[in-house]
Amino acid sequence: MIKRTVLALSLAATATSSYAGSYIDTTLNNSFATAASINPYFTTAFSPDIGNAAGDNTSMDGPWVTISGQGNEASDYFSFDIAQEGQQVTLDIDYTMTHPNNPYGFDAEVALWQQVDTNAYSLLDWNDDSSTSAGAGGSVHDFDSFQVLNAPAGRYIAGVSRFFNEPNDTGWSAESFIAGDRQYTLQVQVSPVPEPESYAMLLAGLGLIGAISRISRRRRMFGLCPG
Ligand SMILES: [Ca+2]
Ligand SMILES: [Ca+2]
Ligand SMILES: [Ca+2]
What we know:
Bound molecules: calcium ion
Mean pLDDT: 83
Radius of gyration: 23 Å
Shape: elongated
Number of strands: 10
Distance between the termini: 88 Å
């Protein structure tokens, strides 16, 4: 009986608050100073919605958080820390242009800042529109954002805002904001930087060996070198 009560209480707590893998945005986190920390919510479980630009699922590659965001007539900022070197950060907007609570869609943009000094942050890069395949799962519209950036160990701020009607893709729209009734899903993942270079170098190396052996075979054929 006691056990059942404890279970019921913990289920109730799960339903009403954020838990591992999920952060529900309820605060007015509209500046770097009031950025909501998502550090406690990272998980390494499987998610069908965490992916890369090629459309592959990457949820098991590194810890991630799903942020259920709510516009408060402001932009939203979330802080997190990276302890290890050799990591990358993925910001992936899902289910947002077609969210049932967004009757006119919500054209999001995302950005990433790294802390460079006390109260000083450097804008690393930002993204307005991705392709529909970027971010695997949940990215259903070209206007949903997707961004992957290398991230040295340190403190970071992820930002979400609404794309402002400026000339396309000119920068972070600090003066723009998310209307209070608009909702979005932001996936934040920290994972090791993949090393496709080593695989490419292996293939190039094999190709070079093949070319050299072809050349020496031909040279032998024409008597250009001994052996
Ligand atoms: Ca908010
Ligand atoms: Ca996704
Ligand atoms: Ca967009």
